[in-house]
Design brief:
It comes from Nephila pilipes (Giant wood spider). The protein is mainly alpha-helical and 98 residues long. Helices cover 67% and strands 0% of the residues.
Length: 98
C-alpha cells in the first residue's frame, strides 16, 4: 500500500533537516564521548568534591548517549523522508533531486 502523507516540498525540507541534525548531533555526541573540554560548562555539575572526576565522566557519557540517540532519531526521520520522496517521485509530483 501507498501511504503518501508528505508533499514534495515538505519531503525535501525534512530530508535536509534530518541530514543536518544527524551530522551535527553525531559530531557533538562524539565530542562528548571523548570528553572534550569545550563542553565542560554544559555538564551542569554544581558541587566540586572528591568524586568530581567520576561525576564529570558519567555526565560526559550520559550526554554523549543522549546526542547519539537523538542522531538516531533523525536517521529514522530521514528514512521516512526518503520513503516519501520515492512515493512522490513515482506519482510524478516531484522532480529528481539527484
Amino acid at each position: 500500500m501507498r501511504y503518501k502523507f508528505c508533499g514534495p516540498k515538505l519531503t525535501a525540507c525534512t530530508m535536509l533537516l534530518s541530514t543536518m541534525g544527524m551530522v551535527i548531533l553525531g559530531v557533538v555526541g562524539l565530542l562528548f564521548w571523548i570528553n572534550c573540554t569545550s563542553f565542560a560548562e554544559d555538564l551542569m555539575i554544581e558541587e566540586i568534591d572528591e568524586n568530581f572526576k567520576t561525576k564529570m565522566n558519567d555526565r560526559y557519557n550520559e550526554l554523549a548517549y543522549n546526542c547519539l540517540i537523538a542522531a538516531g532519531m533523525y536517521a529514522l526521520t530521514l528514512i521516512v523522508a526518503i520513503w516519501q520522496y520515492i512515493l512522490n517521485r513515482r506519482d510524478g509530483s516531484i522532480i529528481a533531486l539527484f
